[in-house]
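Problem statement: downstream parser choked on a complex file, so we are re-checking the raw output for the magnesium ion run. The parser issue turned out to be on our end (a line-ending mismatch), but while we're here, posting the original submission so the record is complete.
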Amino acid sequence: MKKLIIVTAIIMLVSCATVKQSAPPVEETSAGAAISNALTEAAEDQDYLILATLWFQKSAEMRALYYQCFRNAETALAENLAMQIRKMPIMDLPASENPMSGQGKPAAVVLDIDETLLDNSPFQGWQVLEKKEFNNDDWFRWVELAQAKSLPGAVEFTRYADSLGVEVFYVSNRTVQEMGPTIKNMAALGFANADSTHMLLKETTSSKVERRAQIEKEYEIILLVGDNLADISGVYEKRGSDYGFDAVDTDRLLFGIRYIVLPNPMYGNWLSELLKMTEGRTEKEKLLKLLETF
Ligand SMILES: [Mg+2]
């Protein structure tokens, strides 16, 4: 979550790039100096988060996108469930004679929590106002409040899945120590299966691959939903020099069908992986390095 600090920088840098294109040409050295000064100032506080957080909280487009994604998720879930039921083994046949043996597990949907179902943007806004970098103590205090609101369409989707008999699981990188207040928060909002049996939180690793595999021992995951591509496949945990674009292109037929991705401009693997290209640099140098990618 330290990534949060730098998040809006990308958007700010995009804005800078736009201004550069539309504004009258300026003398190169002064433009460079202006950008450098702006980045230096931005690197010293949490203003990076302003635009991303504002977009998340105040844009009607954001609400529309969440409704759109969860509507799409409902359609995909119902279709995938119908296909999965058709693959169910014929119960009268012994497993050894059944060509579909092993594929008859009950269906499950796997959802991320933060910025997929729960809105933590007030915490981001607080960071901006207080000019505080992300730290685990502040985050834990926010989680303990158990007052995060649900994102548009999220509660309804989990209840819809539950009504179809699809097992709803939450795989999140909130830590296991945060289980109690997370359940309290989500149960109060009306999320289906808001209990410790259906919540697989982070113990030692941020990778969700093993936790998904654990679910797959007993269930067939027919849909995955998250704001981070790593919520849906281990393939996306490392993005590489092409930012993961090739992997997404390869999986393009799965999006909207098996994978539902929600928008998060504030943080995510997209940013943390990008920043790996800048390891060993100061905050200011990192931003300048990222500027070179435009
Ligand atoms: Mg998330």
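For whoever reads this later: Residues 1-29, 98-102 have pLDDT under 50 and may be disordered.
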